[in-house]
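ok so I'm stuck.
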Amino acid sequence: MKAELAIAIVAAITGIAALVVAILSNRVSSREARRGNLLQERMLALESHREGVRRRESDIALVVAALAPGDAFAHPRLVIRNRGPATATGIAVLIDGTPILQHDEHFGPDQEVPPLGPGGEFEYRLFITATSSTLARKVDLRWTNADGTDDANVTTIQP
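replied:
not stuck anymore, here's the structure
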């Protein structure tokens, strides 16, 4: 009978040990599953953020200004370019705070900048005299992006 009791005790201890191991294993597995879920949620949030940034960047224009020198018979040109992937509309050009069509150095054409698609450009001719040719000018560009947000870019030009 002692042998049977010993076997029963060993079996009970083995059963309890197996139960403890199963419980601990279940806890570890649950913890790892929660970590995996958290990691998946973070990766999904990051991918969603990146997609939003990509979508936002595709709706943004980048309007820049540069001065192109004129030849012996032509006046220098202020070239307005869209280097962004979206169309820019409502483009306003100010030179030293004055709208270009009202600026003393504006020589033509007498129209506002039309909407510029990606890679599009528009030119204004400027009448720059010998006395004003060394002066730097601040060109302030303002426009509306394809997503409806307003944007701006300020640069300095000098003949």
